[in-house]
Specification:
Strand content: 15-25%
Shape: globular
Number of strands: 10
Distance between the termini: 23 Å
């Protein structure tokens, strides 16, 4: 069920699983779309080349261009867009601050650069990709060139990389009240495997740096939440 009101839509990059319905939804809610100019150009190109849906419109009635490394505001919420390493035109993650609360959301990145780790600090709610289990990916159904793409530094985060991040008290501050693992591959991961990997990493932290929030695994088929912050 769609919400009755949405004030804005933020698009991280042009890949179809993140942008395909963005223009239609923006028109439905009569709200602006926030995205980078290169991402917008790629979305327009994708729609123009979509021979299976020739009538599908990529037109946003209202667009606000954002840039990685710059802050902007929507109402009383301050937002930081930050660049992420992914094989897209100009991919970004977003960190939100409002009413003394911080939310950080980042998926679709091949590794965690230092500047990304900094943007994830002090988050009360953190959504982080945990896309694949390496062994499942290696023996799974994807062609080899797709497996290489997924494992590359512009691909997707594995459970192992996420676990290394969560176990390291110098980079993960364990502050989130809610930690959500998202963008799990249906072919190359399983919610139980992702959860176990993360739980083992969090349990390995020293008691002084323990994670005391809630761990959640996002599903492609049902929504999570709502969350209280």
């Amino acid at each position: 069920m769609l919400p009755e009101r949405v004030d804005a839509i933020l698009v991280t990059h042009e890949h179809s699983d993140h942008s395909y319905a963005a223009a239609q939804l923006a028109r439905h809610w009569r709200c602006p779309a926030y995205l980078t100019e290169p991402t917008h150009r790629e979305i327009v190109k994708m729609y123009a080349e979509d021979s299976e849906n020739p009538g599908k419109k990529a037109t946003f009635d209202r667009i606000e261009y954002v840039r990685a490394g710059e802050r902007f505001e929507i109402g009383d919420v301050e937002i930081n867009a930050f660049r992420i390493p992914h094989d897209a035109a100009d991919p970004v993650g977003f960190a939100f601050r409002g009413s003394g609360t911080k939310i950080a959301v980042t998926t679709d990145l091949g590794y965690l650069p230092e500047h990304v780790k900094q943007h994830l600090r002090e988050a009360d709610f953190l959504m982080l990709e945990s896309n694949h289990d390496l062994e499942m990916l290696k023996v799974g159904p994807y062609p080899w060139h797709i497996k290489q793409r997924v494992m590359s530094r512009t691909g997707h985060l594995s459970n192992n990389v996420v676990s290394d991040f969560l176990a390291d008290s110098e980079v993960f501050d364990a502050r989130p009240r809610h930690l959500v693992l998202a963008h799990l591959s249906e072919q190359n991961n399983h919610p139980d495997i992702a959860r176990l990997s993360a739980e083992q990493a969090l349990a390995a932290r020293a008691i002084d740096f323990a994670f005391r929030g809630s761990l959640h695994i996002a599903s492609q088929r049902s929504p999570l939440g709502p969350f209280e912050l």
